[in-house]
Design brief:
This protein is mainly alpha-helical. The chain is built from 11 helices and 6 strands.
Length: about 280
């Protein structure tokens, strides 16, 4: 029997061929599933590798999200050789004729990658989702704040022409930047008056704690250094390491977006500033 050597492991050719047949069948099942969820006016195509794209002419964002939910439900009902079908799904809507269609596609691709990263499939990811929920309950870092952070950071990232990979990590960073606050007392996080020296020192520990959390989860490790650095300052007076010009670019972007969002949205201890 012939065999194929991969990374110093001999894999029998028969196994490789059988696996390829399963992959091909999964792709066919995926295509059929997607076609069953759209109308004849819509366009479904293989985008490359294991990626598919659906174009929905004259379709509102609300309806597109409904189609996504339908696809997710059908995925749970689909198996090939006992392998469950699982898809990362993302949508983006072109609301004005002048918008670049490729930017719209890139936004959808970015959401697909984030969806893949944050699927509640592993115990670690479930734990992280619970932590984010807990953080929202005990601080001002709400789901709405994270979504605004993600949207604004991507807008700025696209403006300065970041790569698709950088935009993906930037979106992930927007969701996770304050995860280190999970272990800080609620009374400290929501204190309406000035913090004591000890309380401020506790707050300043959250970038390092967030770094440790992200480092422990493979999918989130790429943004760990940016979580650690987003409270650094260009003049060296930031924390925890007093960095200057060596602050990672994505961390600098998140710093700007976070400051802007906090200033322009209502908090119990202050009135929002105008966007101008």
């Amino acid at each position: 029997m012939a065999s194929i050597k991969t990374k110093d492991i001999d894999i029998p050719e028969e196994i490789v061929n059988n696996w390829q047949k399963i992959v091909d069948k999964l792709l066919i099942e995926t295509a059929e599933l997607l076609l069953s969820c759209v109308t004849k006016e819509d366009f479904v195509a293989r985008w490359g590798g294991d990626e598919f794209i659906i174009l929905l002419p004259q379709t509102q964002e609300k309806e597109a999200k409904k189609i996504c939910r339908n696809i997710t439900v059908k995925c749970k009902e689909t198996k090939v050789n006992e392998i469950s079908l699982s898809l990362g799904i993302g949508t983006a809507t072109k609301k004005e004729p002048k918008l670049d269609i490729y930017k719209i596609l890139h936004r959808a691709e970015d959401k697909v990658l984030i969806d893949k990263l944050t699927k509640k499939r592993s115990s670690k990811n479930k734990l992280l989702q619970n932590m984010l929920k807990t953080l929202g309950a005990k601080s001002y870092e709400t789901k709405e704040h994270a979504e605004r952070m993600r949207r604004l950071s991507l807008k700025l990232g696209e403006k300065i022409e970041l790569s698709k990979k950088q935009l993906t990590y930037l979106s992930l960073l927007a969701s996770l930047h304050d995860i280190g606050k999970i272990n800080i007392a609620e009374k400290t996080l929501k204190k309406p008056s000035a913090l004591s020296t000890q309380e401020w020192e506790t707050i300043k520990e959250h970038p390092a704690k967030g770094f440790a959390i992200a480092q422990s989860i493979k999918e989130f490790a790429p943004v760990a250094n940016c979580i650690l650095a987003y409270h650094e300052r260009w003049d060296g007076d930031g924390y925890p390491r007093g960095l200057k010009e060596e602050i990672p670019l994505l961390a600098r972007i998140i710093t700007i977006i976070d400051a802007y969002d906090v200033m322009t949205n209502d908090r119990p201890y202050k009135e929002p500033m105008s966007k101008k």
